[in-house]
Amino acid sequence: MKRKRMTQLFPFLLPIRKTQRKSFFYAKMYFDRNQYAKAKAPEFLPFCIYETKSKLLNENTGFDMKYQENKVFNLRLAAEPVNGLLIRPGETFSFWRGVRYAEKNERYKDGLCVVNDELVTVPGGGLCHLSNLLFGLFLHAPLTIVERHSHQLKDFPSPDEDEPDGVDATIHEGWLDLKVKNNTNLTFQIEISINGPYIYGRIFVDQAKGYSYEVINRDKSFFKKDGKTFERVSVCRQVIDSKSQQVISENLLYTDVFEIGYLLPEGTAITEEKEI
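That's the Vancomycin resistance protein VanW sequence above. Prediction below.
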């Protein structure tokens, strides 16, 4: 049996624990000698190297759609301090350092979030939608991933069928962050906008390059273990020549394994497996 944490046994301690964790979380960044991205530019850099969009509302959650609408409200607050942010040579981007004061004027609303392997509603729920989008942008740029955490449970199918699986980054203030470092001589810039049913993301660079990146899945499979269904998928990145559009190289970035919390389409091949 999985041992319960102290805050699960005594829930009244949770606010104290959260405050403690956040204090240490930001203090560690203050003293870690990294130079964190914080500057914005009035205009975007000249070369867009990748752009994407993602549907804001997901009707497959099983929850009241008001929580999806609350998520959009939360995303608007969190996107504002990130939009236009520069990541200069030697700088590190931190999700939480970027959005730390996003709700200083307006408070986050209740949205959906996975807590202790359960989908629940919490203030600020839904911000993973933004961290997922940002992670997808970063994988299409020559940035070094410093910290990224995958979701252990996928509760409902993605509303964007063309999205590769496993390209996600869960975040939890005080515990889990998304960080990338710019180890190049280039300057990058983030653009995030919300318009209609979509959230849009673009990443810019100050110098034109002769190649681009494409992120794809390999070896996607489903299996059962202890009565639960899991997906295993490899995430690979291709380097594409800008002129010929030919694949120059391909390398494996990582392999993710996560539980599936919804019914897969009829006919999906699922194997039995004793160990993950």
